[in-house]
Amino acid sequence: MARKEFAQFEAVSAAVRAEEGYNAAIAVKALGGSGAPRFNKVLIEQTFKTALEADQAAEQQLEHLADVSEDGELVW
Fold first, then answer.
1. How far apart are the C-alpha atoms of 34 and 44, rounded to whole Å?
2. pTM of the shown model
3. Half-sphere exposure of 19 (CA within 13 A, CB side)
4. Mind listing the pLDDT tens digit for each residue in 23-61?
């Protein structure tokens, strides 16, 4: 799991269970805020056999993330 902090949000690599395997995702949560994070699937066309593989792919995508908008959307 990798983490990247922005002005108002933090983004964390994650794996989300899919019908067959796992999807890579980036979870976004307001800094210092409570509540559940918002999961954004990345590499949508790919499914990974293990959660570890999906998380590693999400970590690579997180490196390219430029920012998170005020609405919590990923900005590439």
1. 28
2. 0.91
3. 1
4. 999 999 999 888 899 999 999 999 999 999 999 999 999
